[in-house]
What does this fold into?
Amino acid sequence: MTNQALEAVLLETDFADLELYASGKVRDLYRVDNERLLLVATDRISAFDYVLGSGIPNKGRVLTQLSLFWFNFLTDIVPNHLLTADVARYPAHLRPHAEQLQGRSMLVVRADMIAIECVVRGYLSGSGWKEYQQSGKVCGIELPRGLRESDRLPEPIFTPAVKATSGHDENISFEQMAERAGPRLSEQLRELSLRIYKKAAEHAAARGILIADTKFEFGRTARGVVLADEVLTPDSSRFWPADRYQPGRTQESFDKQFVRDYLEQIRWNKRPPAPALPAGVVQETSEKYVEAYRRLTGRELPV
It folds into this structure.
């Protein structure tokens, strides 16, 4: 990847004529009208709850295009908030920004988002592994003794989370979720999440990728509960190459774990200002994201 390509990142959206509805670590949402929002995925990357000083080329396109693939793949299980990702079909006042929006944006139905991260784990990793080491459980779910880091679980488990005041995801039990969201909705989201994960994991495994865990977000619209935001991307999931899988250790991955490992290596104190990444780390991270898209979809990333 050339230095020019490394610099070709979208870190900030600048649509002065549009109304910013919300801005996250990676995505910016703009209000189109009372019923619709414009979701734009930038090339920003976050780790340990901070946006880093470097962007990742093509990252926003991968997040958008992979979400579009999964939205279509999962329509037999759950509807989603997508209206169109064809910029030519966007409202007229958005079209002056067509070049910036192409490939990295979606026009979506405005949904009443449910404030629960619906996490499904098929393998023991991350915060789940840390919790298991301490208690033998993950989010109140008792697991078999003697499991190793990255072991495949007997069955995928649903382990919800919420945003704590610090901005971190905080694991909660299903009972705590039911207290927050209500038992009926909680049961529905658990069932949907497990069904989505199982179908996606089977598809990914056939293409050489293990989905260790992932998180879904749901909202309510006139159609009922819909899958929203992003879905099964390298930002929201742990993707492991199946041919290099070896339980008992941390796995190689197609997600931003590579960036987290670099930040641990340089002993960043996880306080602002967040560091920039060296060109080599930026390039390899970009390549990992694009390779995940290529393997999962069987297509080249649209330019």
Notes: Residues 3-110 form a domain with the Phosphorylase Kinase; domain 1 fold (CATH 3.30.200.20).
